[in-house]
Amino acid sequence: MDKITERLKSKNNIEKILFTIFLIFYVIIGVQVLCNHNLTSPTELIFNTDTIRVMNDISSISGYHARLSVHPLLVILTQPIYFLLNGIIHNKLITIVIMSSIVSALSVTIIFKIFQVFSKSTKLSIVLAACYGIAFTCMIFTANSEVYNYATLFLLLLWYFIIMKVKDGWKKKSDFIILMALGISSLGFTITNYFIFLIACLVLLLSKTVKLKKLLLANIAIILLLVGLSFFQKCIWRNTPLITAFFNRTVKVEQTYTNYNINIQSVKNVIKDDIYNPIVSSDVEVKQNNRGWQQVVFKSMSIENKIIITAFLITILIFTLKNFRKNLAINIGIVLSILFNFVLHLLYGNSECFLYSMHFTYLIFILCGINCLSEEGNKPKKYIATVIGLLLLLEILKNGYIFIKFLRLLHLYLPMRLYAKKCGIILTSIATGVATLFEITLFNIFVYFCKKMSKSEDISDKYKYIIYLFILFTLFESVFICTQTFNV
């Protein structure tokens, strides 16, 4: 029993457990949104998201990928993985759900790893990572097919890499290859993320980790590679626009989402829909938007949301001011990134800030991890633990309740599949959770036997493991084939 406890407490196993729990959680909510409804036509119902277009970008070779001048490498970064997984899963919707769930579960794991760099308490790091994972924006944009959770994963990887280089130093030449790969992937998912990459480079410069000349060369290489990959993508996927289209046609289109008339309401929109509602959701309802579509929107915030989220934000502010100099370069980078996103959303897409909130929320949690989790005194630690604990409790209660209400609103406006109508939310969630856990278990056993087979020198043992692997693969595939029977 003691050996099991020790293994569970090890850092790697905590990360695996955290990843597994959130993978199951995200698959359950993803199935509830995407698989249980017939999304057959474009709809802005789900917080003005363009679900059909994004699903088309991820899964269709011949589809018209109109928005790729803003998300320039989305197709080449996602479709090869999609088709690899779909060859095993045999179901478009479930493949998209699993891809999205893996990406978001990895994001929770990476943000936990960032917390652990600064944290004096593993338990508090787990709780704060759970707060991020159950944030309403993470739930909605994982369950619904969107670009933002993919972009957020690579931004988190970028910040984790930058933090580790600031802490440990620039040791290998391969670090430049990693930096360029993270720059290309961050920019490839959303073009405005290049500004976040530039801020990350500034952190390396301020911390005297890398010289300016090398960073300039890296940025030139990233831009040239991005343009080159865009042309390569165009050769393979003929219906994708080149990144150069952004500078002639797309800028004019994007201006329709831009409003330079900043006022108090603009500021309120960013605070409400980029900071408060993405963490803990207000109540929701369906209203007709100015394009004539039905759309889920937020009502006014409840008093408990205002009190606890404000307490959380004030806590971050207090300890950031107190500990700012401890990690000066990193703090400057995170604060500048928050300010950049704040100003961007004052000007661009201000009436639909929640749609872009995943680019914002992870920064707030990283700032909390850097400055709150590094506190050593007992009294500050107890205060921080209390605030984070209350936030997690509020998220579980409110986000859980609002998400179920959100599903019921979808039931009213989108046609449901027959099995979902008959079984309901609870039974389909239990079935999805059990099936996902079963598949994860089979996959881990499969990997274990592969390792055993590679180490074995006895030919009889190798044949034995081949038989085991065949049985495991058959069971693994049977679950996905079963989804075809029920027309999931």
Describe the 3D structure.
The protein is mainly alpha-helical and 488 residues long. The chain has one domain. Helix content is 73%, strand content 2%. The protein is built from 19 helices and 2 strands. It has helices spanning 2-9, 11-35, 51-59, 74-89, 92-118, 122-133, 136-143, 148-168, 174-189, 193-206, 212-236, 250-254, 264-279, 303-323, 328-347, 358-371, 378-413, 418-455, 459-485; strands at residues 284-288, 294-298. A two-stranded antiparallel ribbon has the order 1-2. A hairpin with a 5-residue loop joins strand 1 and strand 2 (294-298). Helix 8 (148-168) runs parallel beside helix 10 and helix 18 packs antiparallel against helix 19 (459-485). The longest helix has 38 residues, at 418-455. Residues 1-5 have low confidence and may be disordered.
List keywords for this structure.
488 residues, mainly alpha, two-stranded antiparallel ribbon
Q: What's the short story on this structure?
A:
By secondary structure, this protein is mostly helical.
Mean pLDDT: 86
Low-confidence stretches: 1-5
Spatial strand sequence of the major β-sheet: 1-2
Would you list the SSEs in sequence order as H and E? HHHHHHHHHHHHHEEHHHHHH
Share of helix, binned: over 70%
Q: How does the overall form come out from the CA principal axes? A: globular
Major sheet: 2 strands, antiparallel
SS class: mainly alpha
Secondary structure: number of strands? 2
Radius of gyration: 23 Å
| Total number of domains | 1
For the record, give the distance between the C-alpha atoms at the N and C termini, rounded to a whole number: 41 Å
Query: Beta-strand level of the residues, as a percent range?
Result: under 5%
Q: Compute the number of helices.
A: 19
